[in-house]
Amino acid sequence: MGTSVCFLNLSSCPRLRLSTFRILSSSEIGVSRRQVLEQVDKELSKGDERAALSLVKDLQGKPGGLRCFAAARQVPQRLYTLDELRLNGIETASLLSPVDSTLGSIERNLQLAAILGGVAAWNAFSFNPQQILFISLGFLFLWTLDLVIFSF
Length: 152
Known about the structure:
Elements: E1 3-9, E2 19-25, H1 33-46, H2 49-59, H3 82-87, H4 102-125, H5 129-149
Helix pairs in contact: 1-2
């Protein structure tokens, strides 16, 4: 069984060296890594992960195949305690989601505007105390409903 190596230079510019190696064996047809990766990509785009994985495993270690795919040792995932994170100098606050104070200030400003608008409406329309009570209870109900609905 003889093996031959074919070298193709894909660039005409001497500074730019794009080359590909193709290994030919008497028992196999020459397959480039790009073709293998394109086949794996086609299988993955179809959604067939098992076929792509079996294709990679079949070509692993063969000439023209993917030599180092999944050859590294897997490191198991580990959950660290807060004490271990502090011991390693990791700020635990940086792992939390950021706090957004913008919505709180907008809500406070809208509440202040509603109170000032209520006082202005009371002076402009000369509401009696009973009407003010019913209007304020209606607005409090809507405000509570808004807080309950949008808190989830």
